[in-house]
Design goal:
The structure holds two protein chains of two kinds. Chain A is mainly beta. Chain A is built from three helices and 24 strands. In chain B, strands 9, 11, 12, 13 and 15 form a five-stranded antiparallel β-sheet that branches. Classes of the chains: A mainly beta, B mainly beta.
């Protein structure tokens, strides 16, 4: 059925036509069935209400409680979002990023790839990546910075990073627990098209008379991406302490791994890469080394450590590429399996 | 036009009578009104604009046929998908005839127990590029792109090229399998039920050539690995790999095969949540 019946059509065409009570009664019934555009209300039509012609226009937010389907092949209707993104309820989503590659210092002459079996031909477990010297020999404990690229398109644009969890295992039982803790963080990197157009936004410069707590990061004043001398320092000792009045002199000459003492603060140089702008997305996590080699080794079984976002959650943007920064001690052949990233999102963006 | 024009003013009762023309107008208005009980088809000459409290479509039968519906951001009311479930991204019907979703993964950087046994290889854009094993029986795994939430990964088409003419067929043709690996690397799910074509680990030979010429010189070859284990794609827990074993045994050669790409086909995908 389409239109309501034209009840009086024939009656009023006649000059002598008189509407009878049944006509008025029928008009009343049909008017009662009509949709009330002013008062609104609930209707349950026996067949779909189909609107063609110029269609409908909804100025205000409506609700589709029962779901809606776009057309068929015969009637290929579509729902098009114009200058907006589809949104969904507030969610925390998790994505597993496999760790399968890394950039590292060429001076170290390390090979970076990878293991799906760690020497075994039975590739059924332990899929992950470990880093070893090209000689194959275990190395004397020393810090090595690894930058692991993460799949760019798997980061949801507009999402906010909440936390990251690193899944790894210690691949070799050392005779003593290491003194250099493994640490990691997630960073966003933007290509430095010009060295002045971009600013380091997440790692603040060292500041005088500032209270720093463990794992806080600062940049040295000689930070200069163009010169490739990007130096960041992490407060590596426990507790909080206040900086002095001038930047520690040791910052100017530090290299990767150098410890610089400033009053109650021990700064650990974690030289970042050059010619890039670096955003520190989550608080750097330092692995708390267990008391014994056995506890540290954990029989080679999986271990996981998590860290959380900085106070101000960062929104994922395509302006940055995302990397996992790991500092590895190189003496226990750790196997890194994956990084689990939790995002808060309210919309879908490609 | 918005509301109908009222036929009678409030003083009509004072006048004491109703004309036929007035009743005709009333009837005409009723004729044009949308029947909320019986439904029907209307073709308005201008848009019906609904403001105020808006509209609720409570019926699961609501549809958009024949033309597009645009949702604009200018109203500050973007399209919000339902709340209350994990899978509340936008999607399409399970019985849609939409083409089977596919994702191509170019093979470029694999995990392997020995880095020296494989290499990334590119001759030129017009020739085969991908991963070449440089050791007999080299074993390597490559991460696959997937559709999160897909009820199943149905098939994976491996595209590969054999570059070297063999004197005789290698006794062990390259093999592949598809696995889901948990985020801690401990759980490995082989996505194929063992059958007569698989070995005990789920590996399947990527070809069954009858002679050296049918192994070499036929250009790009495609092998379809069928996944038949019930497994919903979940990128919050698993990473998906294609794992390979290079040719081995008698008459096998190194640097003879380029593993180029994997095309994953899914079915039953009803949501797109942006995670893959």
């Amino acid at each position: 059925m389409a239109h309501n019946k034209d009840v009086l059509h024939e009656v009023v065409l006649s000059p002598q036509g008189v509407p009878l009570p049944p006509h008025l009664r029928e008009m009343d019934i049909l008017a009662a069935k009509s949709i009330n555009g002013d008062g609104g209300g609930t209707y349950a039509p026996a067949s779909p209400i189909v609107i063609g012609g110029e269609g409908l226009h909804f100025d205000n937010k409506g609700t589709i409680a029962g779901g809606i389907e776009t057309g068929s092949q015969a009637l290929p209707g579509a729902l098009s979002l114009v200058d907006t993104w589809p949104q969904h309820g507030y969610r925390t989503r998790r994505v597993v990023f496999p760790i399968r590659d890394a950039l590292w210092s060429t001076i170290e002459n390390f090979s970076n790839i990878a293991s799906s079996a760690v020497g075994s031909t039975a590739v059924t477990q332990h899929v992950g990546t470990y880093f070893y010297h090209s000689s194959g020999a275990l190395q004397v404990e020393r810090p090595l910075n690894l930058i692991c690229p993460l799949d760019y398109f798997r980061f949801p644009t507009g999402g906010k990073i909440v936390s990251i969890t690193l899944n790894f295992r210690v691949g070799f039982r050392p005779t003593a627990v290491p003194t250099i803790p493994m640490s990691f963080t997630l960073m966003g990197r933007a290509a430095a098209v010009t060295t002045t157009a971009v600013a380091v936004t997440r790692i603040d410069p060292w500041a005088p008379f500032n209270v720093y707590k463990e794992d806080d990061l600062v940049l040295a004043s000689n930070y200069n991406p163009a010169l490739g001398s990007a130096l960041a320092f992490r407060k590596s000792n426990a507790g909080s302490a206040t900086s002095g009045g001038t930047e520690p002199a040791g910052f100017a000459t530090a290299v990767n791994g150098t410890l610089v003492t400033e009053g109650g603060i021990t700064w650990h140089c974690i030289s970042l890469s050059s010619s890039v702008n670096v955003q520190n997305w989550v608080k750097t996590k330092k692995y708390s080394i267990p008391a014994t080699p056995d506890l540290y080794y954990n029989s080679g079984q999986p271990q996981a450590i998590s860290t959380f976002a900085n106070n101000v959650f960062e929104t994922v943007t395509r302006d940055f590429d995302y990397v996992l920064f790991i500092q590895d001690a190189m003496n226990t052949r750790n196997i890194y399996h994956s990084l689990v990233v939790e995002f808060e999102t309210t919309e879908y963006r490609p | 036009m918005s509301n109908f024009v009222r036929v009678w003013s409030d003083d009509i009762l004072v006048r004491g009578y109703i004309t036929g023309a007035e009743l005709r107008d009333l009837d005409e208005n009723t004729y044009h009104a949308i029947d909320g009980d019986n439904g029907g088809v209307w073709n308005p000459t201008s848009k019906i604009i609904v403001n105020g409290e808006g509209v609720v479509f409570a019926s699961p039968k609501s549809s958009i046929d024949g033309a597009s519906v645009d949702v604009t951001a200018t109203s500050s009311f973007p399209f919000v998908f339902g709340r209350g479930t994990e899978d509340d991204y936008f999607g399409f019907s399970e019985d849609t005839t939409h083409p089977q979703p596919k994702i191509l993964t170019m093979l470029r950087r694999a995990l392997t127990p020995d880095y020296h046994e494989i290499t990334n290889y590119a001759v030129s854009p017009s020739t085969a590029f991908g991963i070449r094993p440089f050791a007999l029986g080299a074993r390597f795994a490559h991460v696959l792109k997937v559709y999160n939430g897909a009820p199943s990964l149905d098939t994976v088409d491996l595209n590969f090229t054999v570059h070297a003419l063999h004197v005789s067929l290698p006794s062990e043709i390259p093999m592949m399998r598809i696995i889901a690996v948990s985020n801690d690397g401990d759980e490995v799910i082989v996505l194929r039920v063992p059958d007569s074509d698989t070995d005990s680990d789920g590996f399947v030979k990527i070809a069954n050539p009858v002679d050296p010429l049918s192994w070499f010189g036929v250009g790009v070859q495609t092998f379809t690995y069928t996944c038949n284990v019930a497994h919903k794609i979940d990128v919050s827990k698993y990473t998906y790999y294609a794992e390979f074993i290079a040719e081995n045994g008698n008459n096998a050669q190194v640097n003879a095969v380029t593993f180029g790409s994997c095309l994953c086909s899914f079915s039953g995908v009803t949501i797109f949540d942006g995670r893959n």
